[in-house]
Design a protein that fits this description.
By secondary structure, this protein is α/β, with parallel strands linked by helices. It folds into two domains: 4-150, no CATH class; 155-400, Metallo-dependent phosphatases (Purple Acid Phosphatase, chain A, domain 2, 4-Layer Sandwich), CATH 3.60.21.10. The chain has twelve helices and 14 strands. It has helices spanning 4-31, 38-61, 65-70, 73-106, 110-115, 118-151, 188-201, 219-230, 243-247, 250-258, 292-307, 325-331, and strands spanning 153-162, 173-177, 205-209, 237-240, 262-264, 268-274, 277-283, 316-319, 336-339, 348-349, 352-353, 364-368, 371-375, 391-400. The protein has a six-stranded mixed sheet. A six-stranded mixed sheet has the order 6-7-8-9-13-12. Its EC number is 3.1.-.-. The chain crosses the membrane at residues 6-23, 44-61, 73-98, 130-149.
């Protein structure tokens, strides 16, 4: 159900987008005379208006993936997001442009300019060329992020060693799939492709750490495919809730899981045995809360409930959607905590998010003594743009040492 805060957020983002479009246009007009042409101006604002309406329609109406494909809305929406992110790239380029202009003027040599106007002319030519490539650069960024970034999926492999891993479990291979958001931007063909990637890695089990599906019209087909995948996994598939499951019909998802071979772990644990040596898979719900203190308390409650009955010192793998559970994993001496939720910011620089995220753990592997925590950047997204942060499947090969 849509809330007033949701519509307020849509209105705020819409206003921001229109302001960015206006600033971009004023900059382009000032630096490139062609943008003052009536036909170019009309085309610019028509394209901006159409993309604006398409994106708002998608956010507010949330059309099904089937509707998007049948009516060609899918491609139109991708083009709209391409234009939108191109606009954002332009406004981020403007400070760089004026910074270059300022420093070129600052370090200009007045004596040379008085005697010969060539240095000044060279600067003008450089700035003019720089301005002319701005739209091309911005559109290239948009295309890279929306079309190429949407299709790229990588496998990240991690070799981890533990002193407490039972000998019978030495060599256990675990795959993690997170944040697929199956729906308009992650269809069933893509799920088949990802399932094929997982099969090629030959893991013993698959952990799904939340935000599996956004379009419940695809629920039956999704779990039918997961059931087929589980046949190739010695220890099956384990799944914990994410925040997007709470947005949808959790009862309907729960009913479908109950009919499948996928194991839902909700503030509880599941014991795997190899001979007489157990390994425990723990799963927790998403900690909805009004503030950080309340979220921390919910995490404590969920972890306590999930660990009830697990012998002290047992080798434990924790599945959670929210990355703050990595703290709980370290505090409880949990060997491996797998999380998602952040998408890695979807824009990265040198394997780190390109902008601040409100999480202590944002992307990749973290370690405290003999315990590990991992934040997957996700295999999908609910906004089609990735740059320097490709979607991923994570594979963990666990070994023991004495």
């Amino acid at each position: 159900m849509r809330t007033i805060s949701f519509y307020s957020l849509v209105a705020l983002i819409s206003c921001l987008y229109l302001v960015i479009s206006w600033v971009d246009y004023r900059f382009l007009c000032r630096k490139m005379s062609i943008f003052s042409n009536r036909f170019v101006r009309t085309g610019y604002w028509m394209l901006t208006s159409v993309t604006f309406c398409l994106i708002v329609y998608y956010w507010v109406i949330e059309p099904s993936a089937n509707f998007m494909y049948v009516h060609g809305f899918y491609l139109a929406l991708y083009i709209a997001f391409n234009w939108c992110f191109s606009q954002l790239a332009i406004i981020l380029t403007i400070p760089f442009f004026y910074g270059c202009q300022y420093f070129m003027q600052l370090f200009a040599q007045p004596a040379e300019q008085a005697a010969d106007n060539t240095p000044e002319m060279s600067r003008r030519i450089f700035l003019r060329k720089m301005a002319s490539i701005t739209p091309v650069f911005a559109f290239g960024v948009g295309t890279q992020g929306v079309f190429i970034g949407d299709t790229e999926i990588v496998v990240r492999r991690h070799q981890l060693t533990f002193s407490g891993l039972p000998a019978a479990w030495n060599g256990l291979k675990l795959a993690q799939l997170s944040d697929t958001h199956i729906g308009p931007f992650f269809n069933l063909d893509k799920l088949d492709y990802v399932a094929g990637m997982i099969r090629r890695e030959k893991p013993d089990l698959l952990a799904i750490t939340g935000d599996l599906i956004d379009d419940l019209d695809m629920l039956d087909e999704t779990f039918a495919r997961l059931e087929q995948l589980s046949l190739d996994l010695r220890h099956g598939i384990y799944y914990c809730w994410g925040n997007h499951e709470h947005y949808k019909n959790m009862g309907k998802i729960r009913e479908r899981i109950a009919k499948s071979t996928v194991t839902l772990i909700e503030n509880t644990h599941y014991r795997l045995m190899a001979g007489e040596q157990p390994v425990y898979i723990v799963g927790v719900d998403y900690p909805w809360a009004n503030n950080a203190a309340e979220r921390k308390e919910k995490r404590r409650q969920y972890i306590a409930a999930a660990h009830r009955g697990i012998p002290h010192g047992s080798f434990t793998i924790l599945l959670a959607h929210h990355p703050d559970f990595i703290d709980d994993g370290f505090q409880r001496n949990i060997s491996l905590t797998l999380t998602g939720h952040t998408h890695g910011g979807q824009i990265g620089i040198f394997e780190k998010p390109a902008y601040p995220l409100p999480f202590a753990y944002t992307r990749g592997m973290y370690r405290q003594k003999d315990n590990y925590g991992y934040v997957s950047v996700g295999a999908g997204h609910c906004l089609p743009f990735r740059l320097g942060c490709p979607a991923e499947i994570a594979v963990f090969h666990l070994g023991s040492f004495t």
